[in-house]
Design goal:
Elements: E1 12-14, E2 20-22, E3 30-35, H1 42-60, E4 63-69, H2 73-83, E5 88-91, H3 96-100, E6 104-109, E7 112-117, E8 120-124, E9 130-135, H4 142-149
Parallel strand pairs: 3-4, 4-5
Antiparallel strand pairs: 1-2, 3-8, 6-7, 8-9
Amino acid sequence: MLEVGIKAPDFSLPDQNGEKHSLSDYKGKKVILYFYPKDNTSGCTKQACGYSRLLPQFTEKGAVVLGVSKDTVESHKRFEDKQGLEITILADPELTVIKDYDVWQEKKLYGKVSMGVVRTTYLIDENGIIIKANGKVKAAEDPKNMLAEI
């Protein structure tokens, strides 16, 4: 996980509609950048739906919500359509940004060790500085916790 107080790495990734988004596009706004393992899984769905429900409140506070996973643009589009998502979800199948933000790590599940995305949320200020870094995030609680942070 990246440290609080450092400049967040810039990136350029496509969203669920194939449109490119860069962190630098959001200069002057707070950015909630959250990394999640997989579209249409239980925890990831709770997290994305929670952010979608609270999006008007994030917007009121001048914040943008960006979700990132290693799923494809097409997978994200299906996820958005199935769940009625209002947030922007970015596709990083090459793991470039996922690795830049140090969330591609060894995970253990039922004794099996594998590499995967560790659910992590960063709050980035208007100047691109990481002001909060949450690792081992509880999916269902993350949206309301981050709303309280801003």
